[in-house]
Specification:
CATH class: Mainly Beta
CATH topology: Jelly Rolls
Radius of gyration: 16 Å
Structural class: alpha+beta
Largest sheet: 4 strands, antiparallel
Strand order of the largest sheet: 1-8-3-6
Order of helices and strands: HHEEEEEEHEEHH
Strand content: 25-35%
CATH superfamily: Jelly Rolls
Helix content: 40-55%
């Protein structure tokens, strides 16, 4: 994949849509392209949050582990951003993300990601909207489970 193709992929991610092309080119250039085989982890629950990833091709699953096992809580596809929550909260990874099929992604270093947020308020707003949307989905899932299995 060429630098221009990566820039076009980044433009498809809603929170990067309004960033000027020269900045996206710099972001693509400073990011590392990583390939994952099926079953390979992007990162593991409890790891340090050192980067965010934009999935360029393939699919990944978000998996939560507790003492009793693992649960797939989300499936991510092309142009999805993952790993930003740990960066923003400055906490270890809250889940494991595993390639559900062969995948490629751009790895955006934590420092670069935070710099983008400070330079582009519209990106910060887009991140907040995405996180709020995820929280709403999680709340709806919890409510549905509690109604299906009352205490």
């Amino acid at each position: 994949m060429t630098l221009e193709t990566e820039v076009q992929s980044l433009r498809q991610v809603p929170m990067f849509r309004d960033i000027e092309p020269s900045r996206l080119k710099l972001l693509a250039f400073t990011s590392e392209r990583i390939y994952f085989s099926k079953g390979q982890a992007f990162f593991v629950q409890g790891d340090a949050a050192d980067a965010a990833y934009v999935i360029l091709d393939g699919r990944a699953e978000v998996v939560l582990s507790d003492g009793g096992g693992e649960v797939v809580v989300a499936e991510l596809g092309r142009n999805a951003l993952v790993g930003e929550m740990g960066i923003l909260s400055d906490t270890p990874r809250s889940a494991t993300v595993i390639a559900a099929e062969p995948a490629s992604a751009l790895r955006i270093d934590k420092r670069v990601f935070l710099e983008l947020l400070s330079q582009f308020p519209q990106m910060s707003i887009a991140v907040m909207r995405e996180l709020a949307s995820r929280l709403e989905r999680t709340n709806a899932q919890l409510l549905a489970r509690s109604l299906a299995h009352p205490a």
